[in-house]
Amino acid sequence: MCLDVQGDGTYHLKILVPSVASGAIIGKGGETIAQLQKETGARVKMSKANDFYPGTSERVCLITGNVDAILTVLTFVMEKIKEKPDPNAKVDFDGKNSADREKQLKILVPNSTAGMIIGKAGAYIKQIKEESGAYVQISQKAKDQSLAERCITIIGE
């Protein structure tokens, strides 16, 4: 799910974050996100306040760094999502009720890599589900090719 573009151990993870949790992640004047970056060595970028991922009311968060740094940031982000449930939760673009959003991780992956995650006849995604016990769903490819990415929703404890 992380992409090592440079081949130097630097990975990129793009996730969706509910608007209500974004403020807690960024912090007053950007203090929290700056501290998080300083402590982990990861780079964390959040889309602007009203710049939502198409079809959602969620912001895009790009985490760049080594695997440990990304996992630390991801754990922090998931904690903030749990602490700040969305009071306006509604049915999301994937048809799932986002009321249980605090149990979901939404990862954005390039269209070109979605097939690798799904596997032949869905074999790899089935293996992920069986080994983790999590529910995994990949959004449909945009019919008009307007989106270069697909959203993987992982639901679990």
From TrEMBL:
GO term, biological process aspect, one: regulation of gene expression
Gene3D superfamilies: K Homology domain, type 1 (3.30.1370.10)
Repeat in keyword set: yes
Residue ranges constituting the K Homology domain according to the UniProt record: 9-82, 101-157
InterPro entries attached to this UniProt entry: KH-I_NOVA_rpt1, KH-I_NOVA_rpt2, KH_dom, KH_dom_type_1, KH_dom_type_1_sf
Keywords per UniProt: Repeat, RNA-binding
GO MF annotations, alphabetized: RNA binding
Classification via CDD domains: KH-I_NOVA_rpt1, KH-I_NOVA_rpt2
Transmembrane segments: none
Descriptive protein name: K Homology domain-containing protein
